[in-house]
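so my prof wants the structure for this chain in the tokens format not the other one, which i didnt know existed until like an hour ago. anyway here's the sequence
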Amino acid sequence: MEDLFGNNYPSSSKDLYADIILPVPIPLTFTYSIGPEIQEEIGIGYRVMVQFGRKRILTGIVAKVHQKAPEAYKAKPILDLLDDYPIVNALQIKFWGWLASYYCCHIGEVMNAALPSGLKLSTESKVQMHPDFELENPGYPMDDRELLILEALEKKEEVNVDQLESVVPVRALHKIIKSLLAKKAILVYESVKEKYSPKVEVRVRLAPEYLSDSNKLNELFEGIKGKEKQENVLLKYLQQVPIFKNSQLNDEGLSKKVLTDSGCSPSSIDTLVKNKVLQSFKVKISRFSPIQIDDKPIELSGEQKEAYDAVQKEFTSKATVLLHGITGSGKTEIYIKLILEVLESGSQVLLLLPEIALTTHLVARLQKVFGDKMGVFHSKYSDNERVDIWQGVLSGKYNFIIGVRSSLFLPFDSLGLVIVDEEHEPSYKQYDPAPRFHARDAAIMMAWLHQAKTVLGTATPAFETFSNAQNDKYGYVRMDQRYGDAELPHFHLADILKDKKKNLLKLDFTRLMREKIQEALNHQEQVLIFQNRRGYAPYITCDECGWIPECEHCDVSLTYHQYQEELRCHYCGFKDKVPVKCQACGSNKITTVGSGTERIEENLSLLFPEARILRMDLDTTRSKYGYQKILEEFGSGNVDILVGTQMITKGLDFDRVSLVGIVDADRILFYPDFRSGERAFQQITQVAGRAGRRNVTGNVIIQTRRPDQLIFKQIMNGNYNDFYQQEMGERRQFYYPPFVKNIKIVTKHKDFKTAETAAIQLKNLLSDIEGRKIILGPEKALIGKIKNLFLFEIWIKLEKNANTQERFKQEMVRIISELQGDKRFRSVRFLIDVDPY
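here's what i got, hopefully its the right format
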């Protein structure tokens, strides 16, 4: 017998086994026996339901079918085959394996991240009355709360445990269920169900007998004469569905909602269905609204055409091309031209974006070109919506996907092109949970597996990417001109300390910044204000003794949020009330220190009371369409000033933005990280690129306490190459990427000494591994405690040799596995982060 992927295995119904990938952090796949009833259907990529351990029921993916029984344990049977076709293909499983190997995690962790929640089974704890129990003669004394539960169960055959919370208090529920189990009054069991459910629409249609004989239809109207509501339903139906012109339209019917929305009575519709005048039926429908395509052809400017041709030329010898175009140079039009060409060839395309903020802005633009052929995939979608996109890729409905890093896991089978827009963005890095992958690097690998091409687009390339282009590993195409007549913005440095000495600094804004904002408002132009910290203020403090409120669970100060009037930890979510007086000395002199986006918004409203101001940060965009609503408001001109975090730096394009203000550039530049200079150059350049993107020359105001820093001059001159050469000299000298491979290992434990001891032991064992390396630490992490766990870090710098790296990783994983077997360190968490970003 041969499966869809060409794997041959015996058609005999005896002794057939499957290796199953399970969504749990275990090193190996588990082998299960295949029952004769599903042997003809099962194959690689099918979802199955299996028992793992004593009680857990899990969704697994078939990785291999064979005849070899496991030697260490007796194979349990597969409980059920969940699909009629494979939902994962062989290339995906190969990609999962690479991710697990490269990023030093388990393939089950990759599967858990890859599959949408809607494709995993969920279990519900259900309760029912014990068949041998009699409520009238319980045999044991029952208290009032137990009787309430038993009376609820008597009315229904089974009840979800969470439904019982309405019967008795939540805190007492567990004890009561335990007591009833001991008295053999109830049974508790796990019910397995599919999470995903397709969206259905209830429709009605006229019974076929009224189509074939017009007299019968006349008789029908005579029969319901005087019943105005039923007459209205039929007339509305015939008005919407012209069956006499085309009787086949009746097969499709009409949505019941269309009738009720037009004023028809729901009960009258139900009466006509009951009397068999109308037929009611359900159809699966898309969760996504249909899109109108704009047939206007994409026309490239002279420089865009040159860049497009250069990319195609580079593709003849390179699989990956870096498209280095300044902000506003028109990279999107080149993407569209490349995508159209690949789709015409019958292949698939993936366009990766770093964050949902970019997705909302670009989606509308791309949908005008690609319409319903394009699917959008991001974390704000519901579980069911994400499964619909997954199924759409499988069925071929969507050949072009635009999405964030999780869209890498969609079931592509014939990728022709992968585009990674704003490839330098740190948002492409996943930090928790495993796999801790970088979407740009993973996308290049996935494209290689599909023998596809990759375009990396950015105005400020990551140093690793630019180094690969300089070393001729990647193709390189440069775009130096803005699209159309748009000019690059004018930069201005505003010295915070100088204004402070002259008493010109007002509410965190220098005189130059205030003047330029007022000038823009006077000309009915829009302003973007960038501050890379949300909340009202970084912290509050006592003016008398210097006390600062800190998180109970983490080694960080609490951020003050004025709108909710609370202190909040941005690491664990802990919240506390704002203290009226100092908890150390009792003083009432509590003041805020520093400025977050919330405070900047308030200060601007005080300085410019006539301006319409909106804020865009994590706090204001938590809802599904939060980004979209804010961007629509700003794009329609209903907002004068938009205050935001790094979200506003990511590719937004608005015609009327003439001024960009950076409130505190020093906060980005002077951060304790070897990438701080690179990040500062990227963020300031990117946010500056939002100014003056049409026929208006924009202005960029950079507020700083250190205007003498060379990096500001390089940013203002757009001199990326000089900045790159300077930084690379330092990285070469001190052994930092891209000259070495970085691996960070974090040990976590609730006990400080245990976490430290585990880290020291690990460092000593890693030092014995052969190969050129530098091991730094262990040191207490910059934030030494998060969520009541103490953190220690080990940093490893490996030579850039593939064999050395692979050997080291294998030994490192083995050593950590052995350490976890030591009873002293069983509860220690070891987190491996390859290429920490």
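also thought this was worth mentioning. The chain is about 35% helix and 25% strand.
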